[in-house]
Amino acid sequence: MAQSDQRTKQAAAGRGWRKLVSQYQLMLMSVPFVAILIVFSFFPLWGWIMGFQDYAIPKGIAGSPFVGLDQFVKLFSDDWFYIVLRNTLAMSLMSLVASFVCAIGLALLLNEVRVALFKRTVQTITYIPHFVSWVVIANIVTYVLSPDGGPLNELLISLGWLDEGIYFMSKEHWFWGIHTLASLWKELGWSTIIYLAVLTGINPELYEAADVDGGGRFRKMLHISLPGLMPTAVMLLILSVGYLISTGFESQMLLGNSLVMEYSQVLDLYALEYSLEIGDYSYGVAISMFKSVVSITLVLLVNAWARRLGQSHIL
Length: 315
Hints:
The chain has helices at about 1-20, 25-40, 60-65, 70-75, 80-110, 115-125, 135-145, 150-160, 175-200, 205-210, 215-240, 250-255, 260-265, 265-280, 280-310. It is an all-alpha fold.
């Protein structure tokens, strides 16, 4: 019995090696990308040592003294850290939900459009902002919401809803909503492309059968198109959750100002401030390590939830 199991394992290993050799072209093509991944994603992990040190540039990593978990104790004792964490999670969740729901909704609606020219026009208009820099997007948003001649204020005044312009960008409680709408406008069309591609792959016979049964457009969207999207949507949701706490800082830095800092500053800006402005690099590395651990945990949790529901998962 043991010899039989051993022969089975050897045969499986032999088949694996033969398959690997037969696909050597694909392996060679993937080498540059694997090398880029290693250089830019794994080599920088060496710098995590700084999170356990009192790092000083003149001494370097080799000469800086180890302080254990002092940087993390300092991090979790800082009240401002929890405010920044709240902002990061709130804006990330709002943007994720808005993008997830609106992208699926727009894809379902565009899939029902039969006029090709109108469909292509809408797609082009919605995904062009994805290629526009956040610098330009932030300037457009600031101009539209400006109290001095901004189109939104001018419209509200002309309708008699306001007597004078409102400085929207100074209202700290409105910042999350403004950021969510700006992010949605920038990325909605790009997110929709993936769902439209999935919809084109759904078997047309399903729609024909629904027509025979007397199903209207909304019933076909609800019972055919939407279920066909769900495996891809769940997969993208799992991947997106990993970036909930690593949202970057460009949009918040460009849209925010000193009046709304309590609601605009996120973890990446927080780490950047300590690393470059204050010079506490070890504290900045500790923040980055916290972000990585939380991101991995979130991905694993959502992946387990998807697996329990019988949906697509990555692990």
